[in-house]
Amino acid sequence: xxxxxxxxxxxxxxxxxxxxxxxxxxxxxxxxxxxxxxxxxxxxxxxxxxxxxxxxxxxxxxxxxxxxxxxxxxxxxxxxxxxxxxxxxxxxxxxxxxxxxxxxxxxxxxxxxxxxxxxxxxxxxxxxxxxxxxxxxxxxxxxxxxxxxxxxxxxxxxxxxxxxxxxxxxxxxxxxxxxxxxxxxxxxxxxxxxxxxxxxxxxxxxxxxxxxxxxxxxxxxxxxxxxxxxxxxxxxxxxxxxxxxxxxxxxxxxxxxxxxxxxxxxxxxxxxxxxxxxxxxxxxxxxxxxxxxxxxxxxxxxxxxxxxxxxxxxxxxxxxxxxxxxxxxxxxxxxxxxxxxxxxxxxxxxxxxxxxxxxxxxxxxxxxxxxxxxxxxxxxxxxxxx
Length: 386
Description:
Layout: E1 5-18, E2 25-27, E3 30-32, E4 34-44, E5 49-53, H1 57-60, H2 64-71, E6 79-80, H3 86-93, H4 101-122, H5 126-129, E7 137-143, H6 150-162, E8 167-171, H7 176-186, E9 195-199, H8 201-204, H9 211-223, E10 229-230, H10 238-247, E11 252-254, H11 261-269, E12 275-276, H12 286-298, E13 302-303, H13 311-322, E14 329-333, H14 338-341, E15 350-351, E16 354-356, H15 369-374
């Protein structure tokens, strides 16, 4: 199989799937009026096209086109032996400005697009280019749990239980006391015998709790039997993570928005998490994701990916984790998002609480001119935190 490539063109594709009036998603961070996607398409020398996604584009899509333009001179007409060389090549030549944040994510999006294109050209699923399947399927958990009332959160969680999900994840409320009441009131009402996860959303969103409050919430989550307690502190508060983890009897996870291996290295070596949550579309591509998963394994830390975006984010992460032996659980967002399902070449196949390995070439995606026309970008929506 030939894994080499030369990219002759690259372009950003911004899409929006707005909700109808009255159907927007309400949560403690504000209102989600649409799903935005900041995609990157590459064209190889033989004309094969592939697509990637910068995960942070759900909140900052407008930042992506300029970064694609800035990376272009370092990408086009270069000889690569393997798609997973691409992002590191780009970061090495642009180290003054691409070492982290969404810039690293855009480099990763280009790498993902190259992986997709080579897989399509060679007629093989992307996981074969990533080293081959480590398992034929992976357990998934239901992620969503938005809503600004207890009834909204409970109704969503029980819908997921009825749909067969063993584990459901719901989000915290704005303040710690209300969040503790949420856990105490709705967990006893969850149907079935499955488990729950509490996501404190950087404890919580744009106004982080004190670490003492994060610990109080964690103690309640532990008493209620949470599978884990997610992002109890601001993403940059490594000491806060370590303090919460040391104080509560429930696994602590984070940080989905980290964009580099180095951020995860510091977090893990500081004993801040039991579960690392990289996202291939945030952290700089599948190669960096695998490096983080390897590092987590050597330090006794689990690895459960963050997956929250279009079908590109979904498939990029799915192929990446199916090719890594240390990842045994996968986030699956069940909130309505046409940009998730409509970009897939074929529907995903599920078996109980697991999703089966996809078989379509590349990532199994197709971004057509019709899709671009159907979902034109609207700059006032997206995931905006108020």
